[in-house]
Amino acid sequence: MPRLTTPMPGSPKPSEELAGSSPAGDAAAPVTVQGAASAELFGPGVEEKMRITGLNFFYDKSQALYDVSLRIPTNHVTAFIGPSGCGKSTFLRTLNRMFETVKGTRVEGDVRLDGEDIFDLDVTSVRRRVGMVFQKSNPFPKSIFDNVAYGLRVNGGLSRAQVAERVERSLVRAALWDEVKHKLHESAYGLSGGQQQRLCIARALAVDPEVLLLDEPCSALDPIATAKIEELLLGLADSCTIVIVTHNMQQAARVSDYTGFFLMGKLVEFDRTEQIFQAPARKETEDYITGRFG
Amino acid sequence: MLVTLALVYELWVNSALSRHQFGWHFFVTQTWDPVAGQFGALPFIYGTVVTSMVALVLAVPAGVGAAIFLSELAPRKLSDAMTFLIELLAAVPSVIYGVIGMFVLLPVIKEYAYPALKNTLGWTPLFQGPFYGVSFLSAGIVLAVMILPFIVSVSRQVLMAVPQDQREGALALGATKWEMTWKVVVPFAKQGIFGSIFLALARALGETMAVTMVIGNDPKIHASLFAPGYSIAAIIANEFTEATSDAYISSLINLGLVLFALTIVINGVARLLIHATSRHSAQPA
């Protein structure tokens, strides 16, 4: 897969140097963000989880993303907003290499998870470490328990008791346990839409992902179900890096610490959420969030 | 529906003589002796069921396996081309299958399959005794080839209809393509695959011509698959025009009724089975 490694604009170090500074041995250790500019963006004590540099994305001949570069902070909620077709979902699907299920897609650029190039890692291990929740809830036609246990069983190595314990913990983390604990062995399709989406979150959490990607997870849900999921995301951010794509700006403002604005395949602006919503640096961002366009 | 009812009515009325004369003994009597006026359906029921089972045992793994390959692994163009070829198999007239069975399959079985089976599984009652070519086994194999296209074609369609979000859901959890296929795609398509199998079974039960040509037409019950036998459809086709007495004709029609009932019972069992296996897979509300 041809990839370019262009230096990130505004980056304190060229990415080649960064890549060289994190050999495979200590790759698990998060790369601490250094340099004045990034410290300002991330604040003290905030570490970098993923680093995307010079990302270009192609569907056959047409380009969907243009030179996207940014860093995603550990254990925070990062939101991406933008009008339909702006490439934010495509961007999300590169982060766990899920785009590869679509024929004719091609990526150039560099995507690193804790300093490791995700294209050098085994695809299944990338997806295990970077979980994903989809726009439309997609529980398997199995019981609630088996849905959450699916990822654990696929990855193997756990006893029945451990699986049961992890299932319970995941359902608790997804704020679903109290609603389903008496009917774990009933079909997941008996749940409401909001519950199904939380079940999908629990299913993703069960394998203990380091990063959780959510692709417009609330777009098919009513406000109450949406509020529950937002509350849950805020709680999760203590232990997990959350990346959420949404077309709902209020949602981004409510749940995220950092927000990126995509337009026509380009990352227009990426900053702290307050900054984006109160004093955006770019006119396009301001137009979008004030509703003058999109 | 009306046609079905009319059909049942005709079968019922015209088999009245046979039913009055033999009663329930008809189903448990092994003798079929038109000269003596003795008619028992058991050998035919047995032959029909056994050949269909042999066909299923052979065709289900092959057919479902092929469908999984075509829908999940093969490139789209190859998949479409091969599916077309397999579906062509379904269009071959059954008498042709019978001829191929007699002149190609029987010598091959006799030369290779018979010694191999006898040496490895000869200790079971299923694979004992001499082999003359025409047999339950031969009929089962011919049937397997005939029903394979139904299983492959329907199962492939059902597998391809499994929503993309189900596949992505599995992949997003770190499943490999293989784990995704076996643990998500196939279970999701389970109902439809069962459906294709029962469609194939219905075809196997009623298949007449090809079976008649290779089963041996011997109205006796043998445990061994190497022995010749007879099926319901085969005896009706063979003897209907030669049936001389009223009891004879009536008994053949009674057999038709039995075949009909057998098909209905199997359909019923299939539905129960599907119902039992799909408790967890109720469709989304």
Can you describe this structure?
The complex is a heterodimer of chains A (294) and B (285). Chain A is an alpha/beta fold. Chain A has one domain: Rossmann fold, CATH 3.40.50.300. Chain A has helices at residues 15-21, 36-42, 88-95, 123-129, 144-155, 160-173, 177-180, 193-206, 223-236, 249-255, 273-278, 283-289; strands at residues 31-32, 47-59, 62-73, 77-81, 105-113, 116-117, 130-133, 211-215, 241-245, 258-263, 266-272. Chain A has a six-stranded mixed β-sheet with strand order 7-8-9-4-10-11, sandwiched between helices. In chain A, strands 1, 2, 3, 5 and 6 form a five-stranded antiparallel β-sheet that branches. The relative contact order of chain A is 0.15. With 285 residues, chain B is mainly alpha-helical. Chain B has a single domain (40-277), classed as MetI-like (MetI-like fold, Orthogonal Bundle), CATH 1.10.3720.10. Chain B is 73% helix and 1% strand. Chain B contains twelve helices and two strands. Chain B has a two-stranded antiparallel sheet. Chain B is globular and about 70 Å long. The two termini of chain B are 30 Å apart. In chain B, 39% of the residues are buried. Mean pLDDT of chain B is 86; it is low at 280-285. Chains A and B meet through helix 4, helix 5 and helix 8 of A and helix 8 and helix 9 of B.
Short summary:
With 294 residues, chain A is an alpha/beta fold. Chain A has helices at residues 15-21, 36-42, 88-95, 123-129, 144-155, 160-173, 177-180, 193-206, 223-236, 249-255, 273-278, 283-289, and strands at 31-32, 47-59, 62-73, 77-81, 105-113, 116-117, 130-133, 211-215, 241-245, 258-263, 266-272. Residues 1-39 of chain A have low confidence and may be disordered.
Oligomeric nature of the chains? heterodimer
Strand and helix order of chain B: HHHEEHHHHHHHHH
Helix fraction of chain A by DSSP (H/I, runs of at least 4): 25-40%
* Helical proportion of chain B, percent range: over 70%
Uncertain segments of chain A of ≥5 residues (pLDDT<50)?
1-39
How many domain units of chain B? 1
CATH topology of chain A: Rossmann fold
Taking strands numbered 1, 2, ... along the chain, how are they ordered across the largest sheet of chain A?
7-8-9-4-10-11
